[in-house]
Hints:
Blueprint: H1 8-18, H2 21-26, H3 36-54, H4 58-64, E1 67-69, E2 72-74, H5 79-88, H6 107-120, H7 122-129, H8 131-141, H9 144-156, E3 159-164, E4 180-183, E5 189-199, E6 208-215, E7 228-233, E8 235-237, E9 243-246, E10 249-254, E11 265-278, H10 284-320, H11 344-376, H12 380-415, H13 427-435, H14 444-457, H15 462-477, H16 485-511, H17 514-549, H18 554-571, H19 574-584, H20 587-590
Parallel strand pairs: 3-6
Antiparallel strand pairs: 1-2, 4-5, 5-11, 6-7, 7-11, 8-9, 10-11
Helix pairs in contact: 1-11, 3-6, 6-7, 6-10, 6-11, 8-9, 8-10, 10-11, 10-12, 10-13, 11-12, 11-17, 11-18, 12-13, 12-14, 12-15, 12-17, 14-17, 15-16, 16-17, 17-18, 17-19
This protein binds flavin-adenine dinucleotide.
Amino acid sequence: xxxxxxxxxxxxxxxxxxxxxxxxxxxLPGGExxxxxxxxxxxxEGGRFAREVLLPLNQSGDQEGCLLEGGEVKxxxxxxxxxxxxVEGGWPSLAADPAHGGQGLPHSLAMVLxxxxxxxxxxxxxxxxxxxxxxxxxxxxxxxxxxxxxxTKLVEGTWTGxxxxxEPHCGTDLGLIKTRxxxxxxxxxxxxxxxIFISAGEHDLAENIVHLVLAKLxxxxxxxxxxxxxxxxxxxxxxxxxxxxxxxxxCGSLEHKMGIHGNATCVMNFDAAKGFLVGAPNKGLxxxxxMMNAARIGVGIQGLGLTEASFQNALAYARDRLQMRALSxxxxxxxAADPIIVHPDVRRMLLTQxxxxxxxxxxxxxxxxxxxxxxxGTDAAEKERAETLLGLLTPIVKAFxxxxxxxxxxxxxxxxxxxxxxxxxxxxxxxxxARITRLYEGTTGIQALDLLGRKVLMSQGESLKVFTKEIHKxxxxxxxSSELAEFVRPLAKLNAEWGExxxxxxxxxxxxxxxxxxxxxxxxxxxxxxTLAYLFARAAKQARAALAEGTEEAAFxxxxxxxxxxxxxxxxxxxxxxxxxIEAGAEPLMAISAEDFGLGFxx
Length: 603
Ligand SMILES: Cc1cc2nc3c(=O)[nH]c(=O)nc-3n(C[C@H](O)[C@H](O)[C@H](O)COP(=O)(O)OP(=O)(O)OC[C@H]3O[C@@H](n4cnc5c(N)ncnc54)[C@H](O)[C@@H]3O)c2cc1C
């Protein structure tokens, strides 16, 4: 069975040394509660919960899957009990507003815990995973009554939330949805339609499920302008706020899928189910975006968590497995062969995983600070800047970390050789589980369009400039440091190139809009590498400073420098390929007609 240890030392490095979280928390209203001692205790306990409670259920949950009987779904054995412990421990309410029963700790802290959950049991993590987003949508857009009825329950975790967008004929293009909402005399709505692929749509972990559903009013305008958001509980709350009458929403079937078997992916049939409008009529998509943005960051964290899990297990295996001798001569002459970690190619795979795990963690925690500031900040200018950066980084966190998460988990299988392909080691499960993260909450293609089209080009490059200016300032400040030159020089060049390339795409797009779609995924990956390069340069600076000062943990800081070097010398050159593809433009993609694609097998 795979093992896992919460990477607490690395988390401490990123939070305390790199991003100065103690000062960040001290500057947030109520942030003083998150003192370094409290944070350390919470993370340690979270790591213990993930390792001792969730990890043992990961493989059994994958093999057992979920069971649908008479409209009721049973999650795999042990999931319900683990969830009860989770609620009992107060984990769901950690970062929620005290006004709704939350503990008021910063959101970033919950994100670190989320990484641990995703490393140990992604399928389980998706039961509580959408409750936070559902609560957010209600907090921002719900009426006082809706908040009183649903928020406290979602925050304490006794009820869970879902996000019901997708229908059989539409996933990306939500303007096509057919689910109808017909007003009733009591001010509520009858919701009728079919939603598919609904994560945790039905299960036995919580006493009630709160569905947030997109549907169309009878007089709604066509397309995405005519979508409204409704809250539709599985059980209608009674006068005391407890689960009462069963509502007309049932699980029709469970999907059989490639991964996350322990999570119920449901077809949900709404048959005149009672729903209540959230926010203004026809403004549902905007309300749902509150949920989707939080969920997108959450999916990026899934990529990170799986990367870390795969890395830890591949590393242990590579130290243990004896095969062949090192090319330069035996490294363990007393043994029958050398451990495979001596071989350069195995090191390439392990370091790729390590760099993506440590780089991804820096990116998530950097972005988490923006979320804290947007949520709790008091300085208007600082909030505006954080909001811009958060908008820019959200598609990068979501798509880049899930793309490289899939690569990293695949490399984990490769390190195990044929054993990686065998179920009992648990490495192939990580690949299967990672595969969905590139799809749901908007595919990589859609995130890339969001980044390049909406966030960068629609702001005339202004949002990108906020970030590239920060990188430029860092490079300028470190220009004179010969020790950091190996990082700062290539970073400064790439940072300038990022802006120039964006302008060039913008110019081309003025004559041909297809240029945006043609460039977008390569642009997103390029952006991800440059963003991680910035964070690795800062990490290298920190590591050098610690080593210069003298430390008992010299090995930790040297390894950090080595990882940064590996990233710069072996992974960052991938930006050349992405740039080349971007510059090739739309022509090689659009030249062939849809009919001519299939000529090779027509005759
Ligand atoms: C296990 C699982 C859990 C899920 N959980 C939920 C959930 O809880 N709630 C929910 O509502 N949905 C959920 N989904 C649905 C998921 O969000 C969608 O599958 C996803 O958004 C893609 O939609 P689609 O499958 O309809 O693909 P399509 O929209 O048909 O896309 C097919 C392909 O075309 C590409 N494409 C589409 N439009 C464009 C464009 N304009 N430009 C470029 N490329 C484009 C896409 O990138 C993709 O590669 C889940 C799905 C799965 C498999």
